[in-house]
Write a structure and sequence with these properties.
- With about 450 residues, this protein is an all-alpha fold.
- Helices cover about 80% and strands about 0% of the residues.
- The chain has 12 helices and 2 strands; from the N terminus they run αααββααααααααα.
- A hairpin with a 6-residue loop joins β1 and β2.
- α4 packs across α5 and α7 crosses α10.
Length: about 450
């Protein structure tokens, strides 16, 4: 599915846009036609015989027609204005597919991340059990249940253990994001991609050697938002049976604001990791550079987030559909399977989340290619000596695309001429050596050490 997206993205996106625009225009025409039909029928009825419900019906169709017209005009303007950005998003899907085809092992990174998270959660649960039984046991005289009284240091250690859970989980996820960003960056800034080799191990080594501190800082920033969310969730649980609607409403609003703030920080962190992979700078300066780049390319970012997320959602939906079809084909042929709706539902939900984990690699690749493209366009201008690293198809989306393509063609022709001249000189040298060997006797080459040894013997 990951490799098929690069081929079907263009068809799906333009088909959906065409259907949306055509459907909006058709719906608007139908609404105005119904309004005109009902208005003409109402005008033929004398005013004193008109029913109020008929007038309200005509007014409602007028309002619906105006709203549909405004919506259609806005949609068409957005498509016209964003058509080049949408084409750029589709091209990024193609480039991400090319990059992942060079690094197919990058698609199993979620598997290693999942294993690391499982191992850490097992360790965290073992420590949690030891902490729960760290106090002195007491037996209840009536029920016979055993309870433990936490010592004073253990009471504070609960918070440390909770912070460690959030921090470490975010750190493991951030490591995956950096490795993916580093591999895609290495592919983008390699001019001769024919001899490109997968740099996954190199990216892991770069992460461990140089950028662990930046990843830890980024994960800690997300943890600072997760802790208040956990506290609010605990308070909401305590006030669940409260009759105060105002308190519950305020808690829900605070939780929603913190959720939105966490999503924004995660998105900024992902782009900061990409800048770290490109420039090798620290976290703070990389986050600043990522924020400036995203703001200056707001329309491209909006197109990628809207169109790209929708295409990836269709990919997840396709995985769920295929899984459901296979499940129905398996269970439908078994007579002893009487009730399999709930297992099928659970399998489809699991398939959706598994597809989401693997398609996150594709999404991270697209975001990385976007920032690589922006940095490439910022540093280089396509002139001789400052050629773009981007693919030829991506050069159509820079301002001086024609000059850049001409310089690229000129550079390739000059490289071919130099290579052909080198081949001709080598062939000429070989011919001279053959002719000299045929005319003159063979001359034995003697090393300086052997020459000195012969002189001493003489």
């Amino acid at each position: 599915m990951v490799f098929l997206i690069r081929f079907v993205a263009s068809i799906v996106v333009w088909l959906i846009l065409a259907l949306s625009a055509g459907g909006s225009i058709a719906a608007t025409v139908v609404l105005w036609w119904n309004y005109g039909k009902r208005k003409s029928a109402l005008d033929q009825i004398p005013e004193e015989e008109q029913v109020q419900s008929q007038q309200q019906n005509v007014t409602a169709f007028l309002v619906y027609s105006i709203i549909a017209s405004v919506f259609t005009i806005i949609l068409l303007l957005i498509i016209i204005v964003m058509r080049k950005r949408i084409a750029f998003t589709i091209e990024l899907f193609h480039q991400a597919g090319k990059a992942l085809s060079h690094m197919p092992l990058l698609l199993i990174q979620p598997l290693w991340t999942f294993i690391m998270l499982i191992l850490f959660m097992a360790y965290w649960c073992v420590v949690l059990v030891h902490m729960s039984t760290a106090g002195k046991p007491k037996v209840h005289p009536v029920t016979g249940f055993v309870s433990y009284e936490d010592p004073e240091p253990v009471k504070y250690f609960w918070w440390y253990h909770l912070v460690g859970l959030f921090w470490t989980c975010e750190f493991i996820l951030a490591c995956q994001q950096f490795v993916v960003a580093s591999c895609i960056t290495e592919w983008y800034f390699t001019r001769d991609k024919q001899y490109f080799r997968s740099p996954i191990l190199k990216s892991v080594g770069r992460l461990i050697s140089y950028h662990l501190g930046s990843i830890v800082l980024g994960a800690f920033i997300i943890t600072l938002v997760k802790i208040p969310r956990a506290i609010l969730a605990y308070i909401q649980l305590k006030f669940k049976d409260s009759t105060s609607t105002c308190v519950q409403w305020m808690l829900k609003c605070l939780s929603c604001c913190l959720w939105c703030f966490e999503k924004c920080l995660k998105y900024l962190n992902e782009n900061a990791y990409i800048i770290i992979a490109i420039e090798g700078s620290n976290f703070c300066s990389s986050a600043q550079r990522a924020f400036i780049t995203l703001v200056s390319n707001a329309l491209r970012v909006a197109a990628i987030n809207c169109v790209g997320d929708f295409v990836l959602f269709l990919g997840k939906l396709a995985v769920v559909t295929i899984t459901a079809f296979i499940g129905l084909a398996i269970f439908g042929n078994k007579d002893n399977a009487l009730f399999y709706a709930v297992p099928m539902l659970l399998v489809c939900i699991l398939a959706f989340y598994i597809a989401d984990c693997f398609l996150l690699i594709y999404q991270m690749s697209i975001d990385t290619l976007l920032l690589c493209f922006c940095e490439d366009a910022r540093v280089n201008d396509g002139s001789p000596g400052k050629e773009y690293f981007m693919d030829r198809d991506l050069m159509e989306f820079v301002s001086n695309s024609s000059d850049a393509l001409d310089n690229l063609d000129r550079k390739r022709r000059s490289d071919r001429v130099i290579a052909s001249n080198d081949v001709e000189l080598d062939q000429a040298d070989d011919r001279d050596v053959i002719i000299e060997g045929a005319v003159a006797p063979a001359v034995e080459v003697v090393s300086p050490r052997e020459a000195n040894h012969e002189e001493i013997e003489a």
